[in-house]
Specification:
Shape: rod-shaped
Order of helices and strands: H
Number of strands: 0
Largest sheet: none
Distance between the termini: 91 Å
Protein name: MFS transporter
Strand content: under 5%
Oligomer: single chain
Organism: Streptomyces canarius
Length: 55
């Protein structure tokens, strides 16, 4: 007896295909945000060191 309740293995997984662009967008956004935070942090550190040694 055949079981017709199962989905065929050749059926595309549509739920997984929609998640891929979101993960790439999130990866790019996190990379840009972390780069901006590092840049601002290095600028602030440079200002603090310059102010500290301005004698």
């Amino acid at each position: 007896m055949a079981n017709n309740d199962r989905t065929p293995s050749a059926a595309p997984h549509t739920d997984n295909a929609a998640a891929v662009p979101d993960s790439w967008r999130r990866l790019v956004a996190v990379a840009l945000l972390s780069g901006a935070v590092r840049r601002i942090g290095s600028l602030l550190t440079g200002f603090v060191v310059t102010w500290w040694q301005h004698d």
